[in-house]
Specification:
six-stranded antiparallel β-sheet; 4 helices; alpha+beta; 6 strands
Length: 174
């Protein structure tokens, strides 16, 4: 599954962000500090970690906010996805999370896990510095999805290990 586009209404500094499409390759967000780059990433990350945004993240003077994340494909933890779904509908007034059908009905949605390989996004946002590193290398630390570099040793160990075939091949090629 990949996120193809985003629309925001009353989320942080965005009174309204009309649908903005993403490429299937790499997307780069460029802008000065406080221009909304992290807000876009947090809005996607909200699928995976619902407590990353809350009602305090609505635009000042408003009572609710909406995030629409358009997508293609399937995610194994959201089994029911099919072509009749139009987008993920997320609101910050009552923290509704659901998948909206093209006909308008919204269905509930389970949380996407924060464990590789089933996670949707690996967030390295503004808090990129870590107070320390987890030096013990094990499967739990390798697959852990955090917003810091604390498990960097584990991620590097996996890449240099030939048993992790696809990642190792990409690492060797790079």
């Amino acid at each position: 599954m990949w996120i193809t586009g985003i629309e925001l209404k009353n989320i942080r500094g965005f009174k309204e962000l009309p649908r903005t499409d993403f490429s299937q390759g790499i997307n780069i967000l460029i802008g000065p500090n406080n221009s909304g780059k992290s807000t876009i990433l947090y809005s996607i990350f909200f699928l995976q970690r619902p407590n990353i945004l809350n009602t305090r993240d609505t635009t000042l003077g408003t009572n609710d906010g909406e995030i629409h994340l358009y997508f293609q494909g399937r995610h194994r933890d959201i089994i029911a996805l099919n072509p009749s779904y139009e987008y993920f509908h997320l609101t910050l007034n009552n923290l509704t999370r659901g998948i909206k059908l093209k006909e308008g009905q919204i269905y509930g949605m389970p949380q996407i896990p924060e464990i590789e390989p089933n996670n949707l996004i690996y967030p390295y946002l503004s808090k990129r510095k870590t107070a320390g590193f987890i030096e013990q290398i094990n499967e739990q630390n390798v697959n852990s999805v955090t917003g810091t570099f604390s498990n960097l040793y584990n991620k590097i160990d996996r890449l240099i290990n030939p048993e992790f075939e696809s990642g190792n091949r990409q690492y060797i090629r790079a």
